[in-house]
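Thread: "does anyone have the structure for this chain?"

Original post by V.I.:
We have the sequence but no experimental structure in hand. Need at least a predicted one for the grant figures.
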Amino acid sequence: MPEERSLEGWAPGVGDEVKLAEVIDLAFDYRGDVTVVLTDGRDLIGYVYNRDRDVTEPYLQVFDPSGASHTLRYTEIRTIRFTGRDTAAGTSYEAWLRRKEETRPA
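Reply from O.Q.:
Generated one for you, tokens below.
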């Protein structure tokens, strides 16, 4: 099996190589906070809990640290940085087996 990798700390440059829709899908699956960089220069830190790219105006929804919900159109988003701790990192079955082997008495 391939080594488990986290997106934690990744700050993609959206463009030809990486599409915004792909980054948004990854942010939706990410188990930590992200920083949404808006086209007007503002940043919004929070947890992505919903997105829909199959509507007339695709959007992303984020809970900020206070619990307030924000709905952002894809056209308002420049990129998303994976700035929060990835709470799911190291929780795969393979990682569990490695930890179990490391703690086994000699």
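V.I.: this helps a lot. The chain has two helices and five strands.
O.Q.: and The two ends are 26 Å apart (CA to CA).
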